[in-house]
Amino acid sequence: MEHITSVLRANHRIREGTENDFEVRTMAELIQMLSSTSGMMTSLLTAVAGISLLIGGIGIMNIMYVSVTERTREIGLRLSIGARGKDILWQFLTEAVVISMTGGILGAILGIIASLTISSLVHWPIVISESSIIISFIVCVITGVFFGYYPAVKAAALDPIEALRYE
Predict the structure, then answer these.
(1) CA atoms of 32 and 27, how far apart (whole Å)
(2) Tens digit of each residue's pLDDT (9 = 90 or more) over 108-118
């Protein structure tokens, strides 16, 4: 690097004590810049994915609240003929997981289609790993359980008499 700098200074006729009118970089510096940029992009994409997951979870929770409200009489009837709160809880948790898994399946299909389309248009190589799809489905189940739990508990805790009177 020092040899290249001295040759360039001689070719550019730069006097001793003045600044260079060029820069010399090593591959190590370029690799460091690329890894820094890659790390920043990874952090940004992780933040976007986290925000999307939170918004999707809030959507699931709202859907479940509406479902509990609309089916209050049904819940009261089930409780009055012998269903336990745990049965109601499992019913609504299952519904939340099914909703989130449906979104996960649609998201995986759209992601694969978008990746293949971009790959064919821009001629970029792509790799769709099975592990990333499996992990996304696990995250879907966890999201469904996490955001569906509170509405399910609310449904399970309903008083059967009050639920039957609900209009």
Answers:
(1) 8
(2) 999 999 999 99
Q: Which residue has the tokens 């070719």?
A: 11
Joined tokens for residue 58: 């809030």
| Plot region of 25 (φ>0 → left; ψ -120 to 50 → alpha; else → beta) | beta
Using CA of residue 104, residue 106, residue 112, residue 114, what is the dihedral sign? negative
Q: Which two tokens stand for residue 55?
A: 């918004």
The answer to whether residues 144 and 101 touch, using CB atoms and an 8 Å cutoff, is yes
At 142, phi and psi to the nearest 5? Answer: -65, -40
41-50: string of b/e by CB count within 10 Å (b at 16+)? eeeeeeeeee
Structure tokens at 126: 């792509």
pLDDT value at residue 9: 87
Sign of CA dihedral 130, 134, 137, 139: negative
pLDDT in tens, 41-80: 999 999 998 898 899 899 999 999 999 999 999 999 999 9
**Taking all residues of the chain, what is their mean pLDDT, rounded to a whole number?**
90
Q: What is the CA radius of gyration of the chain?
A: 29
